[in-house]
Amino acid sequence: MKTAVIRSRAEGPLAKDFLKQCSRLRIGQSEAIRCAIRLWLVEAKKVPTPAPLPWAGPEEKSK
User: What is the pTM of this model?
Assistant: First the structure.
């Protein structure tokens, strides 16, 4: 099912390149998707959260 999602939603060249890299690395497509998600999660944690505006009042900061 994950493979069908990639093939149907990804751009054609991107999906073909992904499948080519999977076969080059000799890993399954599901394993490659799991690794990509793990890498994305690590990178997503590095993005700082926006700080509250300095002029915002206490009621606006809590939102």
Answer: 0.43
